[in-house]
Sequence to fold (704 residues):
Amino acid sequence: MKVSFPYMGTTVVYKKLLEMLGHEVIMPPKPTQKTINLGVKYSPEFACFPLKVIMGSYFEAIDKGAEVIITSGGHGPCRAGFYERVHRRILEAEGHFVDFIVFDSMFRDRKTFIENVKRLKGKTPLHKVIHALWMVYDMIGKLDKLEMEVQRIRAYEVNRGETTRIWEHIQKMFDKAYTRGALRNAYDKGRKMLAAIELHSVEEENRIRIGIVGEIYVVMEDSINMKMEQLLNSLGAEVERSQYLSQWVTYNMLPKWINWSHEKHILKLSDPYLPIQIGGHAKQSVGQIVDYSRRGFDGVVHLMPFGCLPELVSQSIIPKINEDFGIPVLTISLDEQAGIANNQTRVEAFIDLVKSKHKERLSQGEKNINKSTQHVTTTG
Amino acid sequence: MRELYLGVDVGSVSTNIVLVDEDINVISSQYIRTNGQPLETVKTGLKKLKKEFPVDGKIKGVGTTGSGRQLVGVMIGADVIKNEITAHATATIHFVPNVKTIFEIGGQDSKIIVVDNQMVTDFAMNTVCAAGTGSFLDHQSERLGIPIEEFGDKAMAADRDVRIAGRCTVFAESDMIAKQQFGFSKSEIIKGLCEALVRNYINNLGRGKKLEPPFVFQGGVAANKGIKAAFEKEINHEIIIPEHYNIMGALGSAILARDGNWNSQTETLFRGFEAADLEFVPSTFECEDCPNHCEVVEVRLDKKIVARWGDRCGKWTNSVNTVI
Fold:
């Protein structure tokens, strides 16, 4: 089958899995202005931004010959659960009759899940499928580890742009690896390449760490979030993203009784503020802000698509978290606008704020440490 | 010899250039309409400033801020290029050290900055809704045929209160026409407009923030007594308007240039007043390497490229070795 999927984050992973199952993969181009224009043109005006961008990606993939689109479903009150329906109808109205394979958590609808797996598996023998799954799971973990390193060291690179260039090269190396050995080689080589990057030395106590939270698509796909990770890095801050693919897979694919994933911990942290699931990633966003506060991060950037209901709710909870933990949070809502000057100003001012707060925290030293532990005990 | 610092705030409506001494006493200040030509405007300002420049003065540092900070920073050779939120807060904290809340309303945007213990702890900036900015008043002054400079006095002369919807300029306008037809005077309408602007501003930017006194109000709109009165009515507290309310951004960037230079012996990057005569040619081209088609800005000095920006991938920006 000629298959395609929405473009989000490190796409080499999905590509690899589908290739190993014997499919021809049609890579959708990384979203550009053209993708956005296409998506906006065919999507309902009030739909959320990710729906529009993904819509554009589908048109581009179909243009390149895609016949089947694989995507994830969703549950709860967030509109993401209806994406596939809406996309399919729009595509049909434009005369494109493609097939969709929608993956939901296997514990909700086991029958459909197994059917989907069977379709993807095709004639591939079972041992090959298991090999492919292991291989890809391994790959996600390795890529995520390297990416975390990239997000940390890019803040201190001497030659601007070098880390990003190397990171892109590393992803290409992974793309070419089809055996466990080749994968390990790519990983070792990637680590060495990252270690060789020339860095400014910054004292541990002067390092600024920022967490990025929010709706998964705008958090993971940097072509539509102003390249937020790179922007924060270029302003001298280390970055950690709330979502990595390996965490998502662990959380969604493991049965409940052995599911001790990070995400479970995050959801628990959000309970005092948002006790129920309201869809999307609102509960995660809230929990992650609490988590970042406890882990001593200096600030959080909260990304949301303009008009995203779940994230609007989490945004309104932020002042309360701030009262308890005092962590600065900057909310940025993203839409199709191309001009980034205003958001650039906001991010720069936010980093100034975070830096001066960091300095103050250093100078207050012990007094503050006592205070923050107090906070934890009162809320935990 | 006196050590002096230059601060430049290049906004979308006006460009301010200030010259200050080490203790931030204003020696000279220029307020010029930008008219969409930041480079030309700054050149004019520099030429004027040169005439007022003290004979024993020497520029020790230069800072730029505002939406045109990058371009102008490259042109004049700035030591510090800072966003306008930090610049404004820096100036306010210098002049009103115990400030807790800063209201700033400019021509095209408005901000609220929350300060605690001389440190910015929170801020909000509105750039989307025109109803909370100076351009809203500008527009209505045209409609009423009353120059914006007289707005304040007119508002103060009103006898009665009239409520005008401030949620959106479109609603405000139709509401204003309706109230005119009810027989309210121009003064009363203007007062209503001022109150509508303030309501909109507080609702939009103050949401979820703890606004505590002392309050400082700055930006071009602070010249309007009607707005000041409306603010005081809305938050029920006295408002401080600093002496240099309309050049706070420029002053802030001058202070940042001074503080960045304080302990070091490094020479300023300032190109000198001759910068006004240098031929800076900004141009743009569309990069065709991917479907993004980014519009890349390129600045040349003597045919040599001194800066590039505007590309999303960073390929062009990183190809030039300048610190922006």
